[in-house]
Specification:
Blueprint (H helix, E strand, L loop, with lengths): L3 E9 L5 H11 L3 E13 L2 E7 L2 H14 L4 E4 L5 H14 L5 E3 L16 H9 L3 E4 L3 H8 L9 H10 L4 E4 L8 E8 L2 E9 L9 H14 L4 H17 L24
Helix pairs in contact: 1-7, 2-3, 3-4, 7-8
Length: 269
């Protein structure tokens, strides 16, 4: 049975983003989540207060033992932070999972504004992991940083997507949530061609912490379960929208989503 997702990302002590959000999303959609933790953060809804780095050899060891025993149907990569970590992850995947599809969420800045990718790590990401990506899921600032192309609206997404394909990615889902407007449009580009546009009314809420992590992991789960890419993206977007709409309202800043909205409420029985 398919559905095994290896998540390589940082931990969020507040439970809203990172590894915690990834595990919740994959589990809520019926997949099996495994992890290789790349960094520990002291974090809450108001921001990232500290980062504790995990040695790259230990990150690689987590990947090695999981793949050797359980295996994976998809890999989701989130926060990597430092160039040596990126190189270590790329090497481990090249050795142990060369044919496993990778969903790469190029996490650069936390919701509260804290930088999560060191400057010298950008080149390492572009050279090693971006060409391995079956799907890249950048938001507008991340897409601009990767390509150097200014994005003024969804009309720019195809050009940006083609630039990302030129850098080696097989497909990209460019997310429009950072743009102004009452409608949010995400565009799925595969091999340089727009295959789908997803447009929905903007949900006005401060409870959007971890949306990027959650979406990428939900897509990876769909891929691991055998869904076609467009179907995996559509299901993941619907899951995230409902998770925002039913957010529990925790915290004083950017609050977490309701990752468990697919799970039956046992407190009501």
């Amino acid at each position: 049975m398919k559905g095994r997702v290896l998540i390589i990302a940082g931990s969020d002590s507040g439970g809203g983003a990172g590894i915690q959000a990834d595990i919740k999303a994959v589990t809520a959609l019926g997949g099996f989540a495994m992890t290789a933790i790349t960094a520990l953060t002291a974090q809450n809804t108001q921001g990232v207060h500290a980062i504790f780095e995990v040695p790259e050899d230990f990150i690689a060891r987590q990947i090695e033992v999981v793949l050797a025993d359980i295996g994976a149907d998809a890999v989701k990569i989130g926060m990597l932070h430092r160039a040596p970590v990126i190189l270590s992850v790329a090497d481990a995947l090249a050795r142990l999972a060369p044919d496993v599809p990778v969903v790469l969420d190029p996490v650069m800045i936390a919701k509260g504004g804290h930088a999560l990718l060191e400057a010298d790590a950008m080149a390492a990401l572009e050279e090693t992991l971006l060409p391995r990506a079956a799907l890249l899921t950048p938001n507008v600032p991340e897409a601009e940083a990767l390509t150097g192309i200014k994005i003024d609206g969804p009309a720019d997404f195809p050009r940006v997507g083609r630039a990302l394909m030129g850098m080696g990615a097989e497909a990209a889902l460019i997310k429009g949530g950072h743009l102004d407007g009452a409608i949010v449009t995400d565009t799925l580009i595969v091999e340089g061609e727009v295959v789908a546009q997803f447009s929905d009314p903007r949900i006005v809420s401060r409870h959007t912490h971890g949306t990027g992590c959650t979406l990428a992991s939900a897509i990876a789960c769909g891929i691991a379960q055998g869904l076609e890419l467009q179907d995996a993206v559509a299901r993941a977007r619907a899951y995230v929208r409902q998770a925002i709409l039913t957010a529990p309202g925790f915290g004083q800043g950017h609050g977490p989503l309701n990752h468990a909205h697919t799970v039956r409420d046992f407190t009501a029985s």
